[in-house]
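Lab meeting, item 3. Inverse folding demo.
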């Protein structure tokens, strides 16, 4: 297996309670296991009860939805408070379109409030990036056809496309969980309408490098849309990776890129995201959207997109969580996938249904269930939270695995 995945060789017999306990004892420097009580004491750590995360009830550790743990941007909160007595009126400001286009090096074209005036923006807003995913499926797969996506993958377009009668070709990731772009390209047929690339992958957290994407797009027929979902790309450690696929739009008419304010900008509850594409593609997406983003979401986004200090803090919180999880998983002898997102995949080598159930019912800890979502029987997807939340999860996980 590639060294991109950290793993401990557990032998042919696989993961057992004895091996896990032994690994804990060695990691803690213990000379012998001793009694079960000694082991239980050794794995004891902070419980969920005293933990208080931003935006959740006290005692609940919610590391299941990839939400930003540090709370909202103060600039976004201030912007909302300044506008809060005005939302009896429609918001007419269009500055966010320019901010987004400039951020991604695309032509700055501001759409007019007058529907009779023609404009050709390179940006469309949505209620989270999810609305743009829906619009893509509606615009290009409503009459059937085929779409291609990696598996395991987010599946946002797949679910809508299948409702329209389109077929989905799911291409397995490589053994180290990279999206297999060569295999995805080989899967394209004359019936293919959309190819989805998620960077970083969800649930894998692995980025598709720009040069690989460029080569991939150049080999895809121009009448097949290449959709690049970048919901988590701003958590990448390398600033160059955060640029993403938007520059490809200038050279290729069949590229759509989406991002969201829900993750790095801490606005999950306000539901605002955006799509980037050539103007004729934007027009088609606009025709397939359901409504307008709320005024409070827009004013908050206008403020938050300029709050670089907040975004840096959010990145550092995610990185600290990754580093902590990696150290703990290695000590516990658990395989995990290094991540460039705000979450991490870990193989607990136990039934994921049972582990997630016990984590919640016994310790009030919520994490993503890989079995239920991606048919990854023994895998969890855990979001980087505040350090107290991360520690509460690890303490609970150790206890659940010891008792199973």
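The presenter then showed the designed sequence:
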């Amino acid at each position: 297996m590639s060294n991109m995945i950290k793993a401990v060789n557990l032998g042919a017999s696989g993961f057992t309670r004895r091996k896990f306990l032994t690994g804990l004892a060695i990691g803690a420097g213990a000379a012998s296991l001793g009694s079960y009580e000694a082991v239980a004491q050794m794995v004891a750590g902070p419980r969920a009860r005293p933990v208080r995360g931003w935006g959740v009830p006290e005692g609940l550790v919610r590391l299941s939805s990839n939400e930003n743990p540090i709370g909202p941007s103060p600039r976004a909160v201030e912007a909302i408070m300044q506008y809060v007595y005005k939302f009896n009126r429609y918001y007419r400001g269009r500055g966010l379109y320019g901010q987004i286009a400039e951020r991604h090096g695309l032509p700055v074209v501001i759409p007019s409030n007058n529907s009779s005036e023609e404009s050709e923006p390179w940006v469309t807003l949505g209620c989270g990036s999810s609305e743009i995913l829906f619009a893509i499926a509606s615009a290009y797969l409503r009459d059937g056809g085929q779409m291609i996506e990696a598996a395991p993958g987010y599946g946002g377009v797949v679910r809508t496309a299948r409702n329209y009668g389109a077929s989905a070709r799911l291409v397995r990731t490589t053994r180290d969980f990279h999206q297999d772009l060569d295999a995805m390209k080989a899967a394209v047929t004359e019936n293919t309408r959309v190819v989805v690339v998620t960077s970083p992958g969800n649930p894998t957290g692995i980025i598709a490098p720009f040069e690989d994407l460029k080569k991939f797009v150049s080999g895809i027929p121009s009448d097949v849309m290449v959709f690049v979902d970048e919901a988590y790309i701003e958590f990448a450690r390398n600033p160059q990776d955060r640029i993403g696929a938007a520059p490809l739009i200038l050279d290729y008419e069949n590229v759509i890129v989406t991002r969201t304010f829900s993750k790095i900008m801490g606005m999950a509850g306000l539901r605002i995201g955006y799509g980037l594409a050539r103007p004729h593609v934007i027009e088609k997406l606009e025709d397939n959207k359901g409504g307008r983003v709320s005024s409070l979401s827009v004013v908050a986004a206008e403020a938050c997109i300029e709050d670089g200090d907040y975004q840096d803090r959010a990145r550092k919180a995610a990185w600290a969580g990754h580093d902590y999880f990696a150290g703990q998983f290695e000590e516990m002898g658990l395989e995990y996938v290094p991540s460039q997102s705000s979450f991490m995949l870990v193989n607990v080598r136990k039934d994921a249904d049972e582990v997630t159930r016990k984590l919640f019912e016994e310790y009030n800890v919520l994490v993503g269930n890989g079995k239920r979502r991606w048919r990854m029987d023994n895998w969890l997807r855990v979001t980087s939270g505040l350090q107290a939340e991360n520690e509460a999860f690890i303490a609970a996980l150790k206890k659940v695995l010891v008792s199973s």
